[in-house]
Amino acid sequence: MVIVGQSGDGRRLTEFDLGHGDDPGAQLALRGLRTVRPLRAAGSDGDLTVTMLVEPGTDRGNGASSDPARDAERRSPTPNASGNGSGDGRAVRRQRVAAYAWVESTRGILAAEFYRPVPGGRWGLPGGGLDENEEPVDAVHREVMEETSQRIELGELVGVDSRHWVGRSPAGVLEDFHAVRLIYRARCPVPTDPVVIDVGGTTTAATWFPYESWQDQPWNTGWRDLLVSLFG
User: Fold this and answer.
1) Which end of the chain has fewer CB atoms < 10 Å from its terminal CB, N or C?
2) CA 140, CA 50: separation in Å to the nearest integer?
């Protein structure tokens, strides 16, 4: 994945490959740039370019430090378990780019329930990983339909979230996992009762959370923090 930092007048101020476990905002800050907001994501997984609107000046609130060596150490967490099925005891590196939608309608906010328990709750936004040669915007439409049966009108890219951890996959493989989530705003002009079409996948249920109480719902902790920061 390539990160491009673009100024308000359209100048390209920086461009770099996003390393495994790196946070885009933190890496921009190390280059003396403050992230204003994401602009667009173009290309497919493996050849994706995410463009961010930036301005001079660092923002230490995004996790960047003044010590690149310390940041590199943070990007290489120590596995908390041994063995990964490969026989060498090392975690398998995996980076997954996924696209999700914050969908609004007259019925509220669209949510999808994960197929297995996660800390703090089982609900998150509908969406998922990009298929081979699939653009993020196409992935959002496909995933929302598969997980909720809703047709949406996609808006702007509003968030680029980077999470990094070491843990077991559902198959029991020890992974050094880097998740990059692209969050889009969307609306559903004709909302219906949500139905999971992709039965047997990672989504077990879907629903509309009321506007007045969406923050009180059982979101997964990671999703709750992200959604409050973007839409709270």
Assistant:
1) C
2) 16
How far, in Å, CA of 32 to CA of 19, rounded?
Answer: 18
CA distance 123 to 218: 6
pLDDT tens for 52-96 read 999 998 654 444 333 443 344 344 444 443 344 444 568 999 999
> pTM for this structure?
0.85
Dist. CA 69–CA 71, nearest whole Å? 5
pLDDT of 46 reads 75
In tens, the pLDDT along 156-172 reads 999 999 999 999 887 88
Domains, the chain: 2-74 (no CATH), 92-231 (3.90.79.10)
**CA-to-CA distance for 157 and 139, rounded, in angstroms?**
13
d(CA 126, CA 112): 5
Residue 171, both tokens: 């198959």
Contacts of 61 (CB under 8 A, 6+ apart): none
Which is nearest to 166 in space by CA: 81, 49, 73, 59? 81
pLDDT at 64: 39
Q: How far apart are CA 222 and CA 99, in angstroms?
A: 15
Round to whole Å and give the CA distance between 17 and 14. Answer: 11
Q: Tell me whether residue 176 is exposed, middle or buried, using C-beta atoms within 10 angstroms of its C-beta: 0 to 12, 13 to 18, 19 or more.
A: buried
